[in-house]
Amino acid sequence: MTQFLAVTLNGLTLAALYFIVASGFTLVFGLMRNINLAHGSLYLLGGYVGFEALKVFDNWFFAVAAAFITIALLGALLQLLVFRHLDGQELRQTLITLALSIIFADLMLWYWGGQTYQISAPEMFQGPFRTGLDILPAYPAMRLINVVIALGIGIGLWLFLTRTRIGMMIRAGVDDRGMLQASGVNVHLVFAVTFAVGAGLAGIAGVLGGTVQSISPGEDIRILLASLVVVIVGGMGSVVGSAVGAVVIGLAEQYGLAYTPTYGALYTFIILIVVLAVRPQGLFGKEV
């Protein structure tokens, strides 16, 4: 029972990380219909930026803010300089984002090398959290904080999308992009803000991932693949779907590694195949 509870918590904390990355990913795709294959690079770069910011400011929260702002600005620049000129050219967008991910990976390898970096957690979140339960007396506090942050981001994203003017424009664009453009809304500005928010979320996730796990070359590909599976399972363009998909994939991954380590990785792809076969638009996606 102790192992089951610990594995379940590990799955939920991993799901929290996947959700933060995938929510930005699905937000960008939902509005722009563009699968950004450089999203994993933004995650890894956010982790490196957070690591460097922590050395300068010696404050984990400043490191998170620095990663969000830096990666959000990079995302806005990418949208303005690259994707804005490739509207409706899905194949070119996909190939260019793939090329960008390779370029980013090489640049990060050149600057930070092949070492593994660990971002120090804030002192208040270091060590175990005492649960008071006999079957699981303690659990790493920082992992639980990841879940709290993911919940906060989920609620904040919901408020942003439902209670702000720009959020309503984004939702309108998800439902009917042509109508949004015809109504006189500056679509390019909405696109830039959406891309910036989505990229910034990847930057935050990079710091969180570097704190509870680590950052190193290759993490960009791993997190990109995981977030792709999450948004396909949850449904492209659905933030709620990303949350549900992240929980499903996070738990499946951890249960698989704990109880059938030889075949652990298979469960994620079995879920992906079943969802695509039964409900191709994903659990919360809309038919197009």
List its traits.
288 residues, mainly alpha, 73% helix, 2 strands, two-stranded antiparallel ribbon
Structure description:
The protein starts with a helix and ends in a 10-residue tail after the last helix. Helix 2 (39-57) runs antiparallel to helix 3, helix 6 packs across helix 8 (187-212) and helix 9 crosses helix 10 (239-259). The protein contains eleven helices and two strands. The protein has helices spanning 2-32, 39-57, 60-81, 90-112, 141-163, 165-175, 177-182, 187-212, 219-234, 239-259, 266-278; strands spanning 128-130, 138-140. It is mostly helical and 288 residues long. The protein has a two-stranded antiparallel sheet with strand order 1-2. A hairpin with a 7-residue loop joins strand 1 and strand 2 (138-140).
The fraction of residues in strands falls at under 5%
Structural class: mainly alpha
What proportion of the residues is helical, as a percent range? over 70%
Order of helices and strands: HHHHEEHHHHHHH
| Average residue pLDDT | 85
Neighbour order of strands in the largest sheet? 1-2
Q: What is the rounded Rg?
A: 19 Å
Show unreliable segments.
none
